[in-house]
Amino acid sequence: MEPQPFEIGLYSFAENTPDPYTGATQDPARRLRDLVESAQLADQVGLDVFGLGEHHRAEYLSSTPATILAAIAERTRRIRLTSAVSVLSSDDPVRVFQQFATLDLLSGGRAEVMAGRGSFVESFPLFGYDLDDYDELFEEKLGLLLELRAAERVTWSGRHRPPLADQPVYPRPLQDPLPVWVAVGGTPASVVRAASLGLPMALAIIGGMPERFAPLFGLYRQAAREAGHDPRRLPLSVNSHGFIADDPKEALELSYAASSFIMDRIGRERGWPPQSRAQYEFAATLRGANFVGHPEQIVEKILFQHGLFGHQRFLLQLSVGTLPHAKVMRAIELLGTEVAPVVRKEIASRTGAKPAGAGL
């Protein structure tokens, strides 16, 4: 079997947080236009994936990722378009499938679903779900989503949705099957579930030292083999926070101001202590979780983690908080033109895979 090429991309939650210096919030329509423009640039500079998360909070504009991704589809030609994540537990799998099948048709076969339980819980009361059913909801709805992508007509029954009796579901996507990933935050049971189902896994690493996550990748591959799946056919992704600039000091200054503003606000809700500048700077080192610095530092860190995990995809969240749009666009340019080619070439030499984006 030919090794899989290494993919590099971006993800966003369409953050619209107050500017850390002025306290002003951007016009939502302008923010969404900027987001589409950033995805268009990501496509132009040869990045492989653009992801958009789902949130139902005032700080974010991405309550319907498929809608925004459809707009992006019309402005791009090759970049893959994924949710990051779809909060499947509080959604209807039929509608999720229909939305992303439609996106797949509009984009010429570039859509993916990244299903997750979600790091926030606002969608549960919004759509009438009980948090006591948190795990059961996700497991049941993921099972239905997989049945929907496997067959045009579905017969199904469960506890949290009306049954389906030989019900046809349209439209059908171009890709067969429509790619479905499972996003996990580090819970071993979630890792085993993804592997047992034979689904690609995206692991969020947004804190701590990367070495402590290596056993989860081993657990995934072991569980996949035990379930009868070939782990070599199941790509793995690392999703992390970071920022890139020509000047590493600028990368730290800009990203720390933006990130600490929103992360400390969320931390107050959850009882987390504020993050100090020293902690943030350590997280930007080789052994930390964040990818912050100039292109050479980002290359070194991606390759370091690839040595630990052997993954096939890396997605970077640039805009953890509000950042100047021009600086974000420059970061995307650097990721696509200076980081991605070096990483692809080195990993291809390690694995024997053809570099992703090599045909550009």
UniProtKB/TrEMBL annotation:
The keyword Ubl conjugation does not apply. Residues 7-303 form the Luciferase-like domain. It comes from the Bacteria. One of its GO terms (cellular component) is cytosol. SUPFAM superfamilies: Bacterial luciferase-like. Pfam families: Bac_luciferase. Coiled coil: none annotated. InterPro entries: Bact_Lucif_Oxidored, LLM_Atu2307-like, Luciferase-like_dom, Luciferase-like_sf. GO terms for molecular function: monooxygenase activity; oxidoreductase activity, acting on paired donors, with incorporation or reduction of molecular oxygen. Keywords: Monooxygenase, Oxidoreductase. NCBIfam families: LLM_2I7G. This is Luciferase. It comes from Meiothermus hypogaeus NBRC 106114.
